């Protein structure tokens, strides 16, 4: 089943202070099927992250269509979806692993992972149990669970991001450099859980610089250069 179909996706940024337009990605098109993993590689600044952020609607595309076959609304163009629809899709169906941690103030690491489950109606006790399992899986030491993660190292923050996104087992997972700042042992854990998600029919789109990590995980790889696929 086709879960995502992108056609003609283009995103630019206008720098008002300089009166200049920066072209990020242009005329991007591909399809993603259920349980498939597509990887995108390319140098920094090639426009890879803009594709993920347009799908997640952190960025509003300049043009193009992003048709997602959702459970809530059926086929929906994410480029045209309203904020209410996007909030529901992000909450229940789409997971996003960013390079940088974004946590509500005065929220502990455990509470951050639990929040992903509580907002979709999982009971508090079950949410806590599953959050602890995920934190333990990603080898975040138990003494860190009740600490505010602003003090965490880069690798610890990324592991917390992974735990928060993956604890829900979303239908569509967007991964922006999910292995950056991670040691080799943790990379193996990430690879294993991505394989599990694929077996559970989660569809994934990921950006990587670690080409060795991608071997055996990605079904297709697109090489991006100067805003378009090479």
From TrEMBL:
This protein's UniProt keywords: ATP-binding, Cell membrane, Membrane, Nucleotide-binding, Transport
Membrane topology of the entry: Peripheral membrane protein
InterPro entries, sorted: AAA+_ATPase (IPR003593), ABC_transporter-like_ATP-bd (IPR003439), MetN_ABC_transporter-like (IPR050086), P-loop_NTPase (IPR027417)
Main location: membrane
SUPFAM superfamilies assigned to the protein according to its UniProt record, in alphabetical order: P-loop containing nucleoside triphosphate hydrolases
Family according to the record: Belongs to the ABC transporter superfamily.
Protein name (Swiss-Prot/TrEMBL): ATP-binding cassette domain-containing protein
Lineage: Bacteria, Bacillati, Bacillota, Negativicutes, Acidaminococcales
